[in-house]
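chain below, 179 aa
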Amino acid sequence: MNKLLLVMLIIFISMSRTYAQGIGDWDAKTPGGNTMLDPGSGTVLKFSNPYSEIKGINKWYFFRGHIIGRSYNGFFVINEHSHVNLLFHSESLWNEYLVGKNLKPTLWVRWYQDDWRFLGNAFMVFVFAIAVIICFALYLMVRWVLSKLNISLSMRRYWIMALLVTIVMLLLDAFPQSI
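prediction:
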């Protein structure tokens, strides 16, 4: 058992790209291939070619090759490919621009304030694994109690539900864009 825990700890540490930083620090590639990170001083968007940074991002969503959101300075629209950064000090002007350029999602807006990945973060994978183990233990306890009461419960339902939750999490992790 101790060997298993040691192996799990080594895997957990080796999976994380940011384990040397604080537990709340993160960095991730945006759908447009740029880097968004929070080194502890607030969210920053970094463009690599040519190199530039946009700091102070509070809340954002990804849509049609753009990052759209709110910052400490106002409201912004950033084209991920041309790196054009438009800043609006008025929410009404910002909304007019979004409507005029067809940059308002019609079905679903996925607002983010932090790392949008779930399974890309080793700590969250570990938390998810612990949650699955706890759910499985609860399932076994419920099954044991139900067996004492002569009530049957299929294990297949548990595995189908766990598989569906995992698939949904993988899809949301792979496609952070709004619709």
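The longest strand covers residues 51-63. DSSP finds four helices and seven strands in the chain.
thats it, cya
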